[in-house]
Amino acid sequence: MFKGVLIENDDAGYRTNLVDIDEAQLPEGDVTVRVAYTGLNYKDALAITGRGKIARQFPMIPGVDLVGVVQESLHPAFKPGDRVLLNGWGVGERHWGGMAQKARLKGDWLVPLPTQFSPKQAMAIGTAGYTAMLCVLALEKHGVKPHSGEIVVTGAAGGVGSVAISVLSKLGYSVVAVTGRPEEAEYVTALGAGEVLDRSEFDGPGKPLAKARWAGAIDVVGSHTLANICATTDYRGVVTACGMAGGMEFPASVAPFILRGITLAGIDSVMSPRDERLVAWERLGTDLDATKLGLITNSIGLNQVIPTAERMLAGELRGRVIVDVNEV
Question: What is the average pLDDT across 123-148?
Fold first, then answer.
């Protein structure tokens, strides 16, 4: 038996509880992992509270990422004792995820834990940091360099934004942070932002084309914010879109694309190919200042997950929330 956060949805209603789980209940997979840490991501909070249609089958263990040690393996790439991590692949949605002390998974979903990071540091980065790195790689792929101009990062005090600012600033980019929490200005500045703007400048209906400023952007908000970022991106600039915290709609025009030739690059971290994952984690090992993880990270026990999910959706948290699954 082991502890886990379990979501159920049946005739008794939608509910989430910390429960005892029998190992025989674990789903199919060729690798069993003793989980050390998972992360509480925005998607996880939606699943736990039932405010978003994240979990696709029930019962479900949430947690879209995890790090731990292989207990049993039928996969040729892994053996007992190997330290591994996982991001995405539908865990916490269609397959039991990381918010339990054990997980059974497909070995093809796992990557070795980079030697530069401890398990706790890797989960401090987590899906949010891995997604942020995919965004930075996309900017680079499209030719955006530190001398190209300013990079704007929305949702700057959140997990993706925090890591993005840290990585971009270490690489020499000039970063402008956008947040709806002015009290976090000192925090995002400490991570490397050179300027902090209020979210209110972006979250309402805007012009199809406005004064150009950004060479690149990392957006986690979507909706009007993404449209306004595109409208203010400079000639041949690149906007990476990886979230929808402000909504799924995209109330924009074609003007920035056909008059300034900007690129809108979609970033999918869930099903990203293995080779891209390995590159992203390798780059995190060199391009993220690990000393900043202490600023970014909040740590909780498994027994605090459910109330903390409510606080996350209320916008009361900043940075990354990591969960020690063995603290119950």
Answer: 96
Q: Are strands 297-301 and 320-324 parallel, antiparallel or unpaired?
A: parallel
- Across the range 115-124, mean pLDDT stands at 93
Q: Are strands 31-40 and 102-105 parallel, antiparallel or unpaired?
A: antiparallel
Check whether 280 has a pLDDT greater than 90: yes
- Kindly report the pTM of this predicted structure: 0.89
Tell me the C-alpha distance between 215 and 267, whole Å. Answer: 18
Place of tokens 């093809």: 108
Contact 267, 134 (CB under 8 A): yes
Per-residue pLDDT tens over the stretch 9-37:
999 999 999 999 999 999 999 999 999 99
Task: Give 158's contacts (C-beta < 8 A, 6+ positions apart).
Answer: 42, 128, 220, 245, 318, 319
Cα separations (Å) of 150 from 25, 33, 92, 213? 50, 42, 36, 7
Instruction: Compute the distance between CA of residue 194 and CA of residue 178 in angstroms, rounded to an integer.
Output: 11
Tokens coding 142: 């499209």
CA within 13 Å, CB half, 323:
30
Cβ atoms of residues 7 and 63 within 8 Å = no
Predicted local confidence at residue 31, as pLDDT:
98
Contact at 8 Å (CB) between 113 and 278?
no
Write the CA distances from 279 to 161, 272, 276, 286, integer angstroms.
20, 11, 5, 11
